[in-house]
Amino acid sequence: MRCPFCASVDTQVKDSRVAEDGSYIKRRRFCTECGSRFTTFERVQLKEVMVKKSNGIVVPFEREKLLKSIKVACKKRPITDDRIEKIVNSIQRQLEASGEVEISSREIGVLVMDILSNLDIVAYIRFASVYYNFEKKDDFLKFIDTIKKEISALDENGDSEITGKTYNQCSIIPDFPVNLKRDEDLFNNEK
Ligand SMILES: [Zn+2]
């Protein structure tokens, strides 16, 4: 493994650890040339997944890119790195097992939103606003309105049979980081 700092190929494995669920091996490496330390992960890849972007260009699936976009959405939310790793693993497995030659970036976005919407509403809205790339204010308001309706459908205990969301997940919506915060009426439950 080439050193990412000085490009020397003279690196050594100092320590190897298997993840608790056995899904990857983490190796601490050491560069004998410049003394840097870095970590590599070894995972099973069932097959190469190709992603078709919205502009039609097909590129290999990049796990790191997906991980980064979810991490950005989950920033400062109560979601551990470990949890995010598991989300990415689960999506990667689904993609590899799908049998499709190419998967659109749109489909991957839907998989992520499906998981985040049940995990943390703030992370979900952040991810969705990047995914939908709202250009018009109205489009964005329409999206928020949909979420508002889902929340309004909750019963007194905060449970919803429609969405499966809980009160705790919904009550954090006023933290929503976009300028809409002043429109708090949007989030008020009519009941
Ligand atoms: Zn080095």
Give a structural overview.
This protein has three domains: 11-43; 46-132; 134-191, no CATH class. Mean pLDDT is 77; it is low at 165-191. The protein has helices at residues 63-73, 81-97, 105-117, 121-132, 137-152, 167-171; strands spanning 11-18, 24-31, 37-43, 50-52, 58-60, 102-104. It is of the alpha+beta class. Helix 1 packs across helix 2 and helix 1 crosses helix 4. Strands 1-2-3 form a three-stranded antiparallel beta sheet, with no helix packed on it.
Helix content: 25-40%
* SSE order: EEEEEHHEHHHH
* Oligomeric state of the chains present here: single chain
The major pleated sheet works out as: 3 strands, antiparallel
Distance between the termini: 60 Å
Number of helical segments?
Answer: 6
Q: Would you tell me the overall average pLDDT?
A: 77
Going across the major beta sheet, what is the strand order? 1-2-3
Name the overall outline: elongated
List all distinct small molecules, including ions and cofactors, that are bound in this structure. zinc ion
Number of domains: 3
Radius of gyration: 20 Å
Q: What structural class is derived from the secondary structure elements?
A: alpha+beta
Query: How much β-strand is present in the residues?
Result: 15-25%
Q: Which key terms come to mind for this protein?
A:
single chain, 191 residues, 6 strands, elongated, disordered C terminus
SSE order and pairing:
Layout lengths: L10 E8 L5 E8 L5 E7 L6 E3 L5 E3 L2 H11 L7 H17 L4 E3 H13 L3 H12 L4 H16 L14 H5 L20
Parallel strand pairs: 4-6
Antiparallel strand pairs: 1-2, 2-3, 4-5
The site of zinc ion has 8 residues, from loops.
